[in-house]
Specification:
With 548 residues, the chain is of the alpha/beta class. The chain has 3 domains: 28-58 and 307-433 and 468-500, 3-Layer(aba) Sandwich (Rossmann fold), CATH 3.40.50.10490; 100-291, Glucose-6-phosphate isomerase like protein, domain 1 (Rossmann fold); 511-547, Phosphoglucose isomerase, C-terminal domain (Orthogonal Bundle). The protein has 22 helices and 13 strands. The chain has helices spanning 12-24, 29-34, 39-42, 61-73, 76-85, 118-137, 161-169, 187-194, 214-228, 236-239, 247-253, 279-285, 287-306, 313-327, 345-357, 389-394, 414-433, 437-443, 451-461, 479-500, 511-525, 535-547; strands at residues 44-47, 50-53, 111-112, 115-116, 150-154, 178-182, 202-207, 240-244, 260-262, 332-337, 375-377, 401-406, 469-474. It has a 6-stranded mixed sheet with strand order 1-2-13-12-10-11, sandwiched between helices. α7 (161-169) runs parallel beside α12 (279-285) and α15 (345-357) packs parallel to α20 (479-500). The longest helix has 22 residues, at 479-500. The termini are far apart. The structure holds 6-O-phosphono-beta-D-fructofuranose (F6P). 6-O-phosphono-beta-D-fructofuranose (F6P) binds at residues 156-159, 208-210, 213, 216, 269-270, 355, 507, 510. 6-O-phosphono-beta-D-fructofuranose binds at residues 156-159, 208-210, 213, 216, 269-270, 355, 507, 510. This is Glucose-6-phosphate isomerase. Catalyzes the reversible isomerization of glucose-6-phosphate to fructose-6-phosphate. Its EC number is 5.3.1.9. It is found in: Cytoplasm.
Length: 548
């Protein structure tokens, strides 16, 4: 059954939220804390190894109750059932959305077109496990009898960002294989990666759901041509494998059926790292760690499906986005992990969140008259503190920020970890409290500056505070806890899409540019082809052609 479609802004609860917003919009977080001793407790959810503190947000328990009422009025519960049960919730592409089934246990049942998809999922997982073990143990040899030392993932978008982010984030758990990622059609990208590789000991994993993506096919073709300069055609079987739904095209590329790891069309690219798209993750970390990642995600799925909305981490996180985006008119959200390991996390989420909810047509096909998808950005702390935190603290924009921190570090250097985490705690406190004029003036006491100079300088040193943050404190970065974290954001995306009444699982917005690039490519390659362009594009093309 299809998802229901209602404009959230015409609901009864929206009106109530608007009225509530008027009463709370100017209240300072400091006052919310000083008038409610239970606030921190009431607005924190403790679940497994996650401590999710929402209390430094510009909300009260009444706000959460109203947002939950909105979710109920918009039938979120029913939508969640449809999501997990394989209904065609990606209606514009006529597909179910079942990344959650990929991490479900073997005895689960999820039906698509009358067929339980779980046995097929576990069959592919066993294939991934067997292949991973053979490569990692050195049983799978290259054409010349040498063990594999390097794995190159060739893919883009969801066929790159998820595996690349997970492998980088969990590098502490890595085995001896070196893993590389080629994504950009920029020829310099693949050249830089292959320049130090030995084809005899390298395994190439071509990942493309459609196997039609220009970037991936160009890189795969160029890399295969480079490979064939030193090894014969029959060596391809030992060195190239592929992940795709498009088995015929993969075979056409020259990859044997036994080297194809299939995936299904009900897995969206940006949610596909749990499928065979995660093969590079399994190879880099070993299958057991890949499985722990999936187990973690499954635990978050269960939390999301069963917890009351007031105690549900992804639901509250999504409701807060709606609160800031649609009532405070905040345009972006920052995601700041206090671990260098999650260096690629915000980049990964940019695709997940912005490709999903960057939509302006609702589920009835009408233009929306309210804001949808937020801009996502971020970098690890403490580096980001020395880069863009100035704007979050003293700029003119409201930027709700997620702070992700870990109780334990992986190598256990207490001195560094305490320094890192003192910043994690201090930043959210500083963003909330700010610094008043009186506090600034007190700081000047005993200074050699004249009264006049102090008066001139003071305004620049005042921080308004009242900047909202969410603190996610997780015990330790492990494959399981990362699985939970990624799944948390996946469900947040789903809830946002439901509330904004958009289809989160198509991505037609990336098509137009691709189509135009195809025709411009012909113009670049052949002198006698000329299309009509605007004057700007015309001149740019002429300049490029003349000087290249
Ligand atoms: O950017 C558009 C997109 O379709 C993404 O959604 C997808 O992850 C990426 O291209 C790669 O697609 P494919 O896996 O089919 O090569």
């Amino acid at each position: 059954m299809a998802l229901k479609a209602s404009n959230p802004t015409t609901t009864k609860t929206w009106e109530k939220l608007q009225a509530h917003f008027e009463t709370i919009k100017s209240t300072h977080l400091k006052d919310l804390f000083s008038t409610d001793a239970k606030r921190a407790d009431d607005l924190t959810v403790k679940w497994e190894d996650f401590y999710a503190d929402f209390s430094k947000n510009r909300i009260t328990t009444e706000t959460v109750d109203l947002l939950v009422e909105l979710a109920n009025e918009l039938d979120l519960k029913d939508a969640i059932s449809k999501y997990f049960e394989g209904d065609i919730i990606n209606a514009t592409e006529g597909r179910a959305v079942l990344h959650t089934a990929l991490r479900a246990p073997e005895d689960a049942e999820v039906f698509v077109d009358g067929e339980n998809v779980i046995p097929g999922i576990h069959e592919v997982k066993r294939k991934i496990e067997t292949f991973t073990n053979a490569v990692v143990n050195g049983d799978h040899k290259g054409h010349t009898g040498k063990a594999i030392t390097d794995v190159v993932n060739i893919g883009i978008g969801g066929s790159d960002l998820g595996p690349a982010m997970v492998v980088d984030s969990l590098q502490y758990y890595k085995n001896q294989l070196e893993t590389h990622f080629v994504s950009n059609v920029d020829g310099d990208h693949y050249q830089e990666i292959i320049k130090n590789l030995n084809p005899e000991t390298t395994l190439f994993v071509i990942v493309s759901k459609t196997f039609t993506t220009q970037e991936t096919l160009s890189n795969a073709n160029s890399i295969r041509a480079w490979f064939l300069k030193s090894l014969p055609q029959e060596a391809v079987a030992k060195h190239f494998v592929a992940v795709s739904t498009n088995i015929e095209s993969v075979k056409g590329f020259g990859i044997a059926e036994e080297n194809i790891f299939p995936m299904k069309d009900w897995v969206g690219g940006r949610f596909s790292l749990w499928s065979a798209v995660g093969l590079s993750i399994s190879l880099a970390l070993g299958y057991k760690h890949f499985e722990s990642l999936l187990d973690g995600a499954h635990k978050m799925d269960t939390h999301f499906k069963t917890a009351d909305f007031n105690e549900n981490i992804p639901v509250i996180a999504a409701l807060l986005t709606v609160w800031y985006n649609n009532f405070f008119q905040a345009e972006s959200e920052a995601i700041i992990p206090y671990t260098q390991y999650l260096n690629q996390f915000a980049t990964y989420l940019q695709q997940g969140i912005m490709e999903s909810n960057g939509k302006s047509v609702d589920r009835d096909g009408q233009k929306v008259n309210y804001q949808t998808g937020t801009l996502i950005w971020g970098e690890p702390g403490t580096n980001s503190q020395h880069a863009f935190f100035q704007l979050i603290h003293q700029g003119t924009k409201l930027i709700p920020t997620d702070f992700i921190g870990y109780v334990e570090s992986l190598y256990g250097n207490k001195d560094h970890h305490n320094k890192l985490m003192s910043n994690y705690f201090a930043q959210t406190e500083a963003l909330m409290n700010g610094k008043t004029e009186a506090e600034v003036l007190t700081e000047f006491e005993g200074s050699t500056l004249s009264e006049e100079a102090i008066k001139t300088l003071a305004p620049f040193k005042i921080f308004d505070g009242n900047k909202p943050t969410t603190s996610l404190l997780i015990q330790k970065l492990t494959p399981e806890s990362l699985g939970k974290l990624i799944a948390m954001y996946e469900h947040k995306i789903f809830v946002q899409g439901i509330l904004w009444n958009v289809y989160s699982y198509d991505q037609f917005g990336v098509e137009l540019g691709k189509q135009l690039a195809k025709s411009i490519l012909k113009e670049l390659e052949e002198d006698d082809i000329k299309a009509n362009h605007d004057a700007s594009t015309e001149s740019l093309l002429a300049f490029f052609k003349k000087n290249c």
